Amino acid sequence: MKQFLETGRITGTHGLKGEVRVQPWADSPEFLAEFDELYLDKGARKIEISSSRVHKSMLIMKIKGIDSIEQADGLRNKILYMNRDDVELDDDTYFIQDLIGLDVIDDDTGEKLGVLDDVSETGSNDVYHIKTGDGKIFLIPAIPDVIREVSLEDGIVRVFKMKGLFE
């Protein structure tokens, strides 16, 4: 598992004192606003966050040591990373990046149905994109009636193959 996870992208500057606008890649901008430290360069460079506030669906962030619009503009399009050790997830909650690539197994027959290829966040529940060996994509709801088990250690997602899901 990756230690540092992509969590957003700096899209531009805000004001003249070095603040940046961040597009969060998290469940909510409020989640990302809680961090005091984030990382650049795939985790190689730690940055300290002086302040963060939510503005619409974006974050306005002040990074320690970035004090001018010119310095802030130098960070445009940089990807922000978080250290997975800085987050405690609830049970049955996973980082999307950890789910991608897991084998999807029929819980009743043990048959491999495909690989978890992507996750869409719809609001009410996530939707898992399952890619079969022949390249077809099936969308299944990530709800307890369908998802029986997720095992990151074993690299599998066990699903109940509800009628109509894989047709």
Offer a few descriptive terms.
6-stranded mixed sheet; mainly beta; 12 strands; single chain; 6-stranded antiparallel sheet
In short:
Helices cover 8% and strands 46% of the residues. The chain is mainly β and 167 residues long.
User: In order across it, which strands form the biggest sheet?
Assistant: 3-4-5-2-1-6
Q: What is the number of E strands?
A: 12
**How is the biggest beta sheet arranged?**
6 strands, antiparallel
Q: Give the class from helix and strand content and strand pairing.
A: mainly beta
Round the mean pLDDT to the nearest integer and report it. 91
Distance between the termini: 32 Å
Shape: elongated
Question: How big a fraction of the residues is strand?
Answer: over 45%
Helix/strand order: EEHEEEHEHEEEEEE
Q: Helical stretch count? A: 3
The residue ranges in which pLDDT falls below 50 over 5 or more consecutive positions are: none
Helix content: under 10%
* Rg, Å, rounded: 19 Å
